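= Protein in question =
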Amino acid sequence: MSSFVCRLVAICACELCVRVLPQNGPPVVFWLSGFFFTQAFLTGAKQNYARKHKVPIDLIDFDFEMRDEAGQCEARPEDGVLIRGLFLEAAAWDYDKHCLCESAPKVCVASHSSVMLHTCSM
């Protein structure tokens, strides 16, 4: 039974790569906590910027912008990536003041809004 499930997962993953991604392109918002090796994803985002702007990758860094209002994550950014799936431990995000705040009582972990990682030259 387990070999059948493993094969089914492999076939579905191949189907996704062959048919869906070439037609629609990469997703607008990436689920960062779903990646096994997040450093490779972040390095890839830097490499895309470096190749596009012909800048050495050592001179590229990320700037962060919280996307916590409705409609801010509908379009694919020209440079950088949108990520989701981050969690805050012993803190929360204040959507009115757009800053970190104290967590609610008896809440250890809170989900976080989407974050825009702007790639920029130093």
User: Anything to note?
Assistant: The chain is about 30% helix and 30% strand. The helical segments are 2-24, 38-53. The first strand starts at residue 29 and ends at 31. The first helix runs from residue 2 to 24.
